[in-house]
Amino acid sequence: MIEMLGDLIAAILGLVRKGDFHGATEKLERVYYDILKEDAAFFRSIPKEDLTRRLIHEHNYTNGHLEILAELFNAEAEVELAQDNRSESLEYSEKSLLLFEYIDLQQKTLSLERLDKMRAISERIEALRDG
Q: In the chain, how many domains are there?
């Protein structure tokens, strides 16, 4: 599932590079619903302070679900940044990092790919806050 999501996100970021922000946003909206069975607005409306608690305790999400959502939030942050929507990019970046950090604490295996993503997201957050 994560590999398929990686391909979908690569396609979305390809649309961003071409300047097709509308197409990228539409594709992201479909991925949220197709994979997580909720529309993007549902996830966007949850404050980052409540994100893991609500998804785990109220909606029975697994670490796998949270990892998918972290990837989607990261893609959303990229789409928003490409459109110079800095505050939205910051919000998605913070939610993505929060989920990746939670997953990293829960998982018993080291993932260098996840650590690299977390570092890149942290750098984006720092640049957005300073900028």
A: 1
Rounded to an integer, the average pLDDT of 67-77 is: 95
Give the range of the structural domain holding residue 52, as residue numbers without chain letter: 2-130
pLDDT tens for 21-50 read: 999 999 999 999 999 999 999 999 999 999
Q: What is the pTM of this model?
A: 0.93
Q: What string of H, E and C letters represents the secondary structure of the chain? A: CHHHHHHHHHHHHHHHHCCCHHHHHHHHHHHHHHHHCCCHHHHHCCCHHHHHHHHHHHCCCCHHHHHHHHHHHHHHHHHHHHCCCHHHHHHHHHHHHHHHHHHHHHCCCCCHHHHHHHHHHHHHHHHHHHC
